[in-house]
Each structure stands twice: as C-alpha cells, then as structure tokens.
Amino acid sequence: MGLVVVVGLGLFSQSVMAGVNGSKRCMNCHQKETASWQKSVHANKQIKCLSCHKRNMALRKSKEKLCVQCHTTGKIKPGEPIGIPQKEMLTGVGGFGVEKPMPEAMYSVGVTCTDCHMPDGKKHTFKIVMPKQAKEGKTDACISCHTIFQPEIMQQAVDDWQNNTSNLLAKVKKLLKKKEEFKGQELYKKAETNYRFVKKDGSKGAHNPDYAQQLLRISVRMLESLR
After folding, report:
1. Are the C-beta atoms of residues 165 and 205 closer than 8 Å to each other?
2. What domains sit in the chain, N to C, each tagged with a CATH number?
3. Residue 126 zone, left/alpha/beta (φ > 0; ψ -120 to 50; rest)
4. In angstroms, rounded to a whole number, what is the distance separating the alpha carbons of residues 86 and 204?
5. What's the Cα-to-Cα distance from 176 to each of 116, 135, 157, 170, 182, rounded to whole Å?
C-alpha cells in the first residue's frame, strides 16, 4: 500500500500540488467552468484550477506538456505497478516486445489531449464526446478537426479501434488465466504487464490503436509459447 501511495504522489509536480489549494477565488467568478469541473475525475482527485492554470488564467505549461506531466507512469517494469500511462501509450513506448517507438499518428503531428478531451475549449469534464453522441451543431472529439468526414464515418473508425482492442484484451486475459502456472516466469510477467498497460490507459486502444493492439498480439504469442 505504501508503494502505491509513493508512486501516486510522485506523479504530481510541485506546481500541480500547489494548485490543490488557492482555487476558490477562481471558482467564485468562473461558475460555468466550475460546474463542469465538478463532474470530472479531476475534481474527485482534488486537481483544481491552479493545478493547471496560473492566477492570470494562462496555462502553467504548454498544451503539449501540461496533461502528460501527471498522465505518465515512467519506466514500466515487468510485474510492477503501473501509474497513469497515457503519455507512454501516445508516444508508443514502455511496453514489452515492440523494439522501436510507435507514436500515435495524430499525437506526432501536434494533436494534444485537450484537442479531443476539450474540443470546445470550455468544458472541464474532459469527457470524450463521440461523434454519435454529439447533438446537432455541437462539437465532438473528432469532427472539430476532421471536418470533411461524416460523423458516422468517424464513429465507425473509433468503434473499430476499440472493438479490436477489446477483443485482444479478452484473449490475453483468457490466456493469462490459462497459463497461471507460469506467472513466476519473466515472459508471463511481460505479457501480463502489457495487458495492464493497455487497460490502465483507459481508452480501449483509441489513444494509439496500432501500438495497443501490437502489444496485445505480442502478449498472445508470449503466453502461447509457455509450455
């Protein structure tokens, strides 16, 4: 338990922890932003206004660096706890069996976390609005950039990423159960850690479908080779 607490605390920079207190003045005026933030995971974790913003409302860091200062787990080791690995998933590093980095295409050209999680630049829930969920005339996570595509086409792409990843996760989970007698072996630990890495990312592959699915396919081969 102590290890988990230490790892969790290590994810927060000093600027983020400083923002836990001192945000009440912001909330008094920015009531709409506060109302949406209160529905977010950040609110539950006490990540407040001044965790991300300076007192003049400017971001503490660039959009490219702000979210991933916390949403990162650092070096992943077989069988050990994984923090919040979105940075590693987006950059395509950290898992086992993939020799070279496999950065996600959109992330590589400068698409940031908030471009998808906050496309209107206002709502602080950070919940993804899928094309199929968006009301007419409202911004969703895809069409704000992919303006020439119909929402149905973009939704199908996301569904394919997530369905394929979910199917592979289920396959690896089944094999992990079947091969439990080998769980002390390094190969089993690497496969199990890849599985947890993809699960902890939380996007069902959407953050980097090629990398997530490659990790899981490699994990299947690792587990099937254990005899």
Report:
1. yes
2. 1-60 (no CATH), 67-224 (1.20.140)
3. left
4. 12
5. 33, 41, 29, 10, 9
Distance CA 86, CA 74 (A): 10
The angle, 0 to 180 degrees and rounded to 10, between the axes of the packed helices 209-224 and 186-201 is: 150
The pair of structure tokens assigned to 203 is 């996007």
Q: pLDDT tens across 144-174, in order?
A: 888 888 889 999 999 999 999 999 999 999 9
Number of residues in the chain: 227
Phi then psi dihedrals of residue 35, to 5 deg: -65, -40
Task: Reply yes or no on whether the pLDDT at 86 is more than 70.
Answer: yes
Higher pLDDT among residues 6 and 110, named by residue: 110
Q: Give this prediction's pTM.
A: 0.87
Give the model confidence (pLDDT) of 201-226 as tens digits: 999 999 999 999 999 999 999 999 99
End-to-end Cα spacing for the chain: 34
**Across 33-47, 136-150, 211-225, which has the greatest mean pLDDT?**
211-225
